[in-house]
Design a protein that fits this description.
Distance between the termini: 34 Å
Structural class: alpha+beta
Strand content: 25-35%
Order of helices and strands: HEEEEEHEEEHEHEEE
Strand order of the largest sheet: 8-1-9-10-11-12
Radius of gyration: 16 Å
Organism: Paenibacillus bovis
Number of strands: 12
Number of domains: 1
Protein name: DUF1963 domain-containing protein
């Protein structure tokens, strides 16, 4: 994407990029995937994911919208209570890792038992205001569509110069994404990712917080 579009989406916030999920195989040239196995990059790098005694599950991975040679992968603790209690920066236990782009691993080490692999579509630009009235899996840029309008969620992020980068919204899950016995990882909620956004660089993506209704 051209630099002027990046500047518009991340700084002026009048536009955003929307992504959706489809059954794996229906969009061969998608932007990533949700569910399934983690990228092969992590096959011998489990030390990047584990924290203490917590076990992590792969959630999704998609091509960095402004650095196409990289991906952003997200891992969530196996224990729901873990990330329920640690749901806000700087103590959010959800792992957000930027890494070189990679194919899906053949190993099921980090596979989430409740998620059926789906392809993430290529992003399409949209007006930010219009995105408020439509479902999406991922929204990059614009303003976050919050479930709970409470300033304290982002207070420490803003204090440390982090800005909204993208969100993942479970309202945008297709009906085929969850196994019948599975539950929504975020309680039919949304996860908000922040980063340090400069004119020519986006650094340190982190899990800012997550909310549910």
């Amino acid at each position: 994407m051209a630099m002027e579009n990046q500047d518009n989406i991340l700084h002026q916030r009048t536009d955003c990029i929307l992504y959706h999920a489809h059954l794996a195989g229906t969009d061969e040239y998608g932007a990533g995937w949700i569910g399934g196995n983690a990228p092969a990059f992590f096959d011998d790098r489990s030390d990047l994911i584990h924290q203490g005694n917590s076990r992590y599950r792969f959630y999704l991975s998609f091509i960095h919208p402004f650095r196409p040679g990289n991906m952003i992968s997200i891992f969530i603790p196996d224990s729901y209570e873990d990330y329920l209690e640690n749901n806000m920066y700087p103590d959010c236990s959800i792992q957000v890792i930027e890494h070189p782009a990679a194919i899906e691993s053949i190993h099921t080490t980090f596979a989430h038992p409740h998620l059926i692999k789906h392809t993430i579509s290529r992003g399409k630009q949209s007006k930010d205001e219009e995105s408020n009235d439509q479902p999406f899996l991922i929204k990059v840029g614009g303003h976050p569509r919050l479930i709970q309008q409470e300033d304290y969620y982002a207070a420490k992020l803003k204090k440390n110069s982090f800005s909204f980068l993208f969100q993942i919204d479970e309202e945008g899950y297709p009906d085929t994404l969850l196994h019948e016995e599975g539950s929504y990882p975020f309680g039919f909620g949304a996860l908000y990712i922040y980063a340090k956004i400069k004119v020519l660089e986006i650094e340190h993506p982190v899990a800012g917080f997550w909310q549910f209704s």
